[in-house]
Amino acid sequence: MDHASDIIVSWLWVIEAEAHANIYASEKAYTNTHASDTCFQALEHSESLLERGRPGAASYSFSFADARYSAFSTVHLLGYKGVCNMRLQKPQAAQAFLQERLDTTHPIRIHKKSITLVDLATTYVQLGEVEEACKYVTQALNILEQTRSARVFQRVLRFRQLLDSYNTTSSVRNLDALIVTVLPSIKMQGAL
Description:
Layout: H1 6-26, H2 33-52, H3 60-63, H4 74-87, H5 91-104, H6 110-126, H7 130-147, H8 150-161, H9 170-188
Helix pairs in contact: 1-2, 1-4, 2-4, 4-5, 4-6, 5-6, 6-7, 6-8, 7-9, 8-9
């Protein structure tokens, strides 16, 4: 990787960080401190390389020549930091990164916004704030009515499983009703 641009290596470091966060989250007792430490080290490497920004020989620009994709940036890094902290059971830190990502994401990137909203909602479930969690995921579902993204809808359904012990609350019942309303538009796309 000596000749790769810093932006590519930075992106690879966040992928590694997320993998370590996933390993940590898969441990039932959350005792794998090595995975947690390694995750944060990878995020630090990513950030320092992104800040340095050394150009290099790589096909990155070709891979992301399609206008629907944007180059890896500090906004993307915020999302990874948020998700990693969420999976490492650090919801307050995750919320700070995810909220900053929401605040700095270009308004045209509503797909990315919907993903961030679901992740932010998950942090509120971790804190036991179900009503607040439902508010954020409701915003994501409202965006889904426009984007019809099966990928984000599946993320919403995984999020909904976190609320099983709160099924009788009005917030969760309202969320379930909205999920049922959005589902037909997702199916019409042939995505599910």
